[in-house]
Amino acid sequence: MDHKKTEQPKHKLRRDNVAVVADTSDLLQSNDSPVTRLKILVEQLRSNLQVLISPGDKQFKDVPKRVRLMLVSFAVPLLFAITKIYIFPLSSSLYLWAVVGTVLAVLTYLGVYWGVKGQVRTDSYFSVLPMPSLFVLANCLFLSFLFVGAINRVYLWGLFVLAISVFMTFLYILSLAINILNVSLFYTIPLSRLGESVAFISSIVTVFLGSYVVAETAVPMIVAKSYTELGLLGLFVLVSTFVLILSLWKYFVVSTKSVVVSVACLSLFLLVTLFVFVMASPYAWISAILQGMVAYVLLGFIIHKEQNTYKKSVVIEYIVVVIAALILVIWA
Question: Up-side HSE of residue 9: CA atoms within 13 Å toward CB?
Answer without folding.
Answer: 1
